[in-house]
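Trying the structure run again after the queue cleared.
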Amino acid sequence: MTRIKLLVEGQTEEVFVRELLQPHYARMGLYMTPIIVSTSPGYKGGMTSYAKVRPQIQRLCLQDPEAWITTMFDLYALPTDFPGKSLVVQGSGQQKAQYLELQMAADISLRNFLPYVQVHEFEALLFSQAEKFSEWTDNLNTVAGLVSVAKAHASPEDINDSPHTAPSKRVEAAIPAYQKTFHGPLIACEIGLDVMRGACPHFNEWLIRMESL
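Done. Tokens:
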């Protein structure tokens, strides 16, 4: 039995892990527990500062050395004090995430830590099969627009991360009623892991790493 604790940014990722990853990997003997980051006393969710998250990662690693600790942090809008952020390499989102993961691993420097940075954010996974948005809106034209965005990129992980064109911003502009914490995990479950893995290579690499533990 292998235990993996996933430190995530918010409720959307927590539900995604609980509803999709947990049951899938339990059958393989991997037992996953999502944990939302604490940003201030009595408040959870969001990562405004790496300095607030670093002690939480270290504590989880040291308190349970037999478990693996991983993260699910969005590349989009990472805090400026994130390791390597000021020196991040030019290149694809996947290359940037890989670089930042190496920097975070070096900063934490504990053997049971497995860093992961999502390119560019959770909603990128939903563009793996953007047609699934049609079940949550009556306006098929907006869905067609999202499908066009997906087809215009080699991978959903290539959809850029500007404040106006990041995956979540595109979804919110097309479907104003979209509620991240409610619709996001539901659509992800409808798409399924196999489709997301095939479309999102960096996400797939993370799953492969966990499967090999």
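The chain has a mean pLDDT of 94. Worth checking whether this holds up in the mutant runs.
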